[in-house]
Amino acid sequence: MKAIILIGGLGTRLRPLTCNTPKPLLPVINKPFLLYQIELIKKYGIKDVILCMAYLPSEFKKYFGNGKKFGVRISYAIEKNPLGTGGAIKNAEKFVRGPVLVFNGDVLTDLNLAKLIKVHKAKKAKATITLVHVKDPTSYGLVETTKSGKILRFLEKPSFNQITCNTINAGTYIFEPEIFEKIPPGIVYSVEREVFPTLLCEKIPFYTYTHSGYWIDIGTVEKYLQVHSDIMNKMRENILGKKSKVDKRIKIFGRLVMGNGSKIGRDTMVIGNVCIGNNVNVGSNCYLSDCVILDGSRIDDGTKIEESLVGRDCMVEKNVQLHDGCAIGDKTVIKGYSKL
Ligand code: GDD
Ligand code: MG
């Protein structure tokens, strides 16, 4: 079985970080997010990956090439203009024979693909959709089912008063080749709003698989920070990359990850989960709490960064305070004593 990964979205809710870097290439604990998905796919013996792209495709090609370095074979299905989730899948049809796994490219999960495939085969389904339970379905695609799992209705991005259950589309599907016939070629088409309701309406064998493990869509600044915390909460020790140095007098109350060639100066406090990229220079007497600082940034003395995100190559001058979900775009200069 091959796997299609949809990575053509603009990542608008993660701006300004996604202005120069597509969402799936944003680092999560210092490696591109998409690698986590490729590793999951590989773990289940799937070696052929088709990347469906529309936004900044050359960035992906530069990093992943033909996939050999990562133990997979990668093909690229490039849309001239974004064709939506359905149109993007249709655009990958030429690479696919037989059933195919489809992934939204911004989800981190420990989904058991073997079980999903087993359910799909056992039910002789033409399509299978993975569901998860979430507290608030308003940012997702609500999927109403009967107790036995029969799909009743799809409602993409429901408002509060439309919520009838807490099961949502987890963004991983299996499609038999017939499903491609339901998508018109070359036009913008949505798998969630158009293909799925069509399958229901035409009574095509379409089943669900409910995942109860870890699942997160990294699409917002808050979730991007959360995914770091979730991974770091499971780490047993701090990680310091090659040629990274921390002053003996720093205090760590939590978990610290540093890429290569980074530094932290004296009396800086690290609280909660702090992830620092490559070649980052943090001065002395800083206070870093649950934050992510990307490659090449400089954080001057006395700066306080809490629950915030600093992009690449930024210059945060001394005694700046960043609080509560600040997201600083690449190459930003924040003048000394600013409070954001
Ligand atoms: N190639 C391509 N072309 N990919 C696209 C396009 C496009 O035009 N539009 C979106 N994508 C990709 C995005 O890059 C992302 O990986 C995936 O499709 C889903 O798009 P999002 O923009 O992240 O959608 P969402 O998070 O609002 O909602 C989707 O995901 C939820 C689960 O996280 C829907 O599938 C919901 O139903 C679902 O619950
Ligand atoms: Mg998403």
Give a structural overview.
It is a single chain. With 340 residues, the protein is of the alpha/beta class. It has two domains: 2-219, Spore Coat Polysaccharide Biosynthesis Protein SpsA, Chain A (Alpha-Beta Complex), CATH 3.90.550.10; 230-334, Hexapeptide repeat proteins (UDP N-Acetylglucosamine Acyltransferase, domain 1, 3 Solenoid), CATH 2.160.10. The chain is built from six helices and 27 strands. The chain has helices at 33-43, 57-64, 84-91, 113-122, 191-201, 221-233, and strands at residues 2-6, 27-28, 31-32, 48-53, 73-78, 100-104, 107-109, 127-133, 141-145, 151-156, 167-175, 206-210, 215-217, 239-240, 245-246, 251-258, 263-264, 269-276, 281-282, 287-293, 298-299, 304-306, 309-310, 315-316, 321-322, 327-328, 333-334. The strands form six sheets. Strands 14, 16, 18, 20, 22, 23, 25 and 26 form an eight-stranded parallel beta sheet that branches. A seven-stranded mixed beta sheet has the order 5-4-1-6-11-8-12, with helices on both faces. A hairpin with a 2-residue loop joins strand 2 and strand 3. Helix 3 packs across helix 5. The longest helix has 13 residues, at 221-233. The radius of gyration is 21 Å and the shape is elongated. The mean pLDDT is 94. Bound molecules: guanosine-5'-diphosphate-alpha-D-mannose and magnesium ion. Magnesium ion is lined by residues 104, 106, 217, 219.
